[in-house]
């Protein structure tokens, strides 16, 4: 677990701190509507089935048409990482594309 003082430690590394908003929360109880609409979402938080499903569904809901949803740790060999298992259960109309030889998968929202 990172120390509290380490959150945002490098937030101004590129001198763009004014363009960054950070949120610290358990995503199961986070209000994703306050972020809407989103153009790009990179999911790399908790890796258990419940969180990945919740993060994916909530992010998709606030993603604008044409926006990208990207997951890290897809196809991870680590037993407790359940990203692939979650993605196989999602009811999205769009295909989830796996980037071969990586642990990245993505979806582009149509509507």
Encode the helix/strand succession as letters: EHEHEE
Mean pLDDT figure? 93
Structural class: alpha+beta
How many DSSP-defined strands? 4
State the helicity in percent bands: 10-25%
Strand order, sheet with most strands: 1-2-4-3
Question: How far is it from the N-terminal to the C-terminal residue, by CA?
Answer: 38 Å
**Gyration radius, in Å:** 15 Å
Give the uncertain stretches in residue-range form: none
Q: Report the biggest beta sheet as strand number plus sense, adding barrel if it closes.
A: 4 strands, mixed
DSSP summary: helix tally: 2
Shape designation = globular
Strand content: 15-25%
Textual characterization of the structure:
- The structure is a single chain.
- By secondary structure, the protein is α+β, with helices and mostly antiparallel strands.
- It has two helices and four strands; from the N terminus they run βαβαββ.
- It has a four-stranded mixed beta sheet with strand order 1-2-4-3, covered by helices on one side.
List its salient traits.
111 residues, alpha+beta, 4-stranded mixed β-sheet, 4 strands
Secondary structure topology:
Layout: E1 38-43, H1 49-62, E2 63-72, H2 83-87, E3 97-99, E4 104-108
Parallel strand pairs: 1-2
Antiparallel strand pairs: 2-4, 3-4
């Amino acid at each position: 677990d990172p120390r509290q003082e380490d959150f945002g430690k490098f937030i101004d590394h590129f001198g763009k701190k004014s363009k960054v908003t950070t949120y610290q929360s358990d995503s199961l109880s986070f209000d994703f509507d306050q972020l809407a609409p989103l153009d790009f979402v990179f999911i790399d938080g908790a890796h258990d089935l419940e969180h990945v499903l919740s993060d994916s569904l909530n992010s998709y809901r606030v993603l604008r048409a044409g926006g990208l949803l990207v997951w890290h740790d897809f196809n991870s060999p680590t037993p407790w990482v359940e990203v692939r298992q979650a993605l196989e259960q999602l009811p999205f109309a769009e295909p989830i594309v796996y980037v071969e030889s990586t642990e990245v998968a993505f979806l582009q929202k149509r509507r």
